[in-house]
Automatic annotation (TrEMBL):
This is Cell shape-determining protein MreB. The keyword Nucleotide-binding applies. The lineage of its organism: Bacteria, Bacillati, Actinomycetota, Actinomycetes, Kitasatosporales. The keyword Cytoplasm applies. ATP binds at G292, S293, A294, L295. The gene is mreB. Transmembrane segments: none annotated.
Length: 343
């Protein structure tokens, strides 16, 4: 079904419930929430202990009565009650109360391309639970395309690669629609898992989840470029005791590069399914990378070499989807009829 620009402009709130981060944009106020999608709860009393960044810091360090929960997985709400409590805490009770008092509150929310009816229902229930009277679902790929400043409403093709936490979506967009799309289970989190597995197999070290992020970002910023590499602390697989290991940056880069080949295959398969006229359009505009994992070191260069197309990273890749949704609800883009759903 098509969603008209007027329907979107009647929305007051734009939400991107990501596996890694939750982002909320309020019309007129801007981005009011950009926090990790994590909640820490006391399993005995059911009380919320922390939400967002403080809850993320607790991950892997909590006593048995505190559980760290991620209510969103692969861009889909998997724990509706927890997602509602997380949103309420992030936005603030005062704002949620004002939402509840507004009988016409409309909210636009991004959902992954081809999200199944259960995933759509979960997004809707989460938002109605925090006060939305009507929820409009917008395909994340379209929202991200708009957020990257791509001319998605024009009859020429644009190619977007949205690199999230657990998955990457690839799509060719034209005239406000998705011409062809593919999804691969590769993202920042899967790469972190690959690094953890590598260290376990080759160094017999169990790396804490928080250290793997630092290690990955060190590689990203060139902080590991000293000849000695970097020292990481973890737990010895056999003895269970604390141990440190010196890691070669080239080794980490190799592990990170492996899952990215499936991304190149996804781009090729999307291009194969597009009419040649649209593929010809892409010779100049090339590939636009969005999503937090677009900042993975060397990803743009690897894609440039593999596809022989120009590759650019969006100006603000992490917030592309919520910014695009915000531009749609604020009417900052040319009117376009979107492939989306209103429920
Ligand atoms: N500077 C950076 N370098 C490398 N990776 C990064 C950087 N910043 C964020 N990331 C990674 O980007 C991912 C989060 O991206 P994003 O915020 O787009 O995800 P999300 O929208 O929450 O997830 P999804 O789209 O999968 O539901 C995380 O895995 C994070 O580690």
């Amino acid at each position: 079904m098509y969603l008209s620009p007027d329907q979107l402009r009647r929305c007051t709130v734009a939400v991107d419930l990501g596996a890694s981060r939750t982002r909320v944009h309020l019309k007129g106020a801007g981005l009011v929430v950009d926090e990790p999608s994590i909640v820490a709860v006391n399993v005995m009393s059911g009380a919320l202990i922390a939400v967002g960044t403080p809850a993320e810091r607790m991950s892997g360090r909590t006593p048995s009565h505190i559980r760290v929960v991620r209510p969103v997985s692969h861009g889909t709400v998997v724990d509706i009650v927890m997602a509602q409590r997380m949103l309420r805490a992030m936005v603030g009770e005062k704002t949620v109360r004002s939402w509840r008092l507004n009988p016409r509150l409309r909210t636009a929310v991004c959902v992954p391309h081809e999200a199944d009816p259960l995933a759509q229902r979960a997004a809707i229930e989460t938002l109605t639970g925090v006060g939305a009277r009507r929820v409009l679902l917008v395909d994340t790929l379209i929202a991200a395309g708009v957020g990257c400043g791509l001319p998605v409403e024009e009859p020429e093709a644009t190619l977007i690669v949205l690199c999230g936490a657990a998955a990457t979506q690839v799509a060719v967009l034209s005239m406000g629609s998705i011409v062809a799309a593919a999804k691969v289970p590769v993202g920042g989190e899967t790469i972190e898992q690959a690094i953890i597995q590598h260290l376990r197999n080759h160094h017999e070290l169990v790396l804490p989840s928080q250290s793997v992020r630092t290690l990955r970002l060190d590689v990203a910023t060139g902080g590991l470029n000293s000849p000695q590499g970097t020292v990481v602390h973890g737990r010895d697989v056999a003895t269970g005791l604390g141990r440190k290991v010196q890691i070669d940056p080239a080794e980490v880069r190799e592990v990170m590069a492996a899952p990215l080949t499936s991304l190149v295959d996804a781009i090729r398969s999307v291009l194969h399914r597009c009419p040649p006229d649209l593929v010809a359009d892409l010779a100049d505009s090339g590939v636009t990378l969005a999503g937090g994992s677009a900042l993975l070191p060397g990803l743009d260069e690897q894609l440039r070499q593999a596809t022989r197309m120009p590759v650019q990273i969006a100006e603000d890749p992490s917030t592309a989807a919520v910014n695009g949704l915000a531009a749609l609800i604020e009417g900052r883009v040319k009117p376009l009829n979107l492939d989306a759903m209103a429920l």
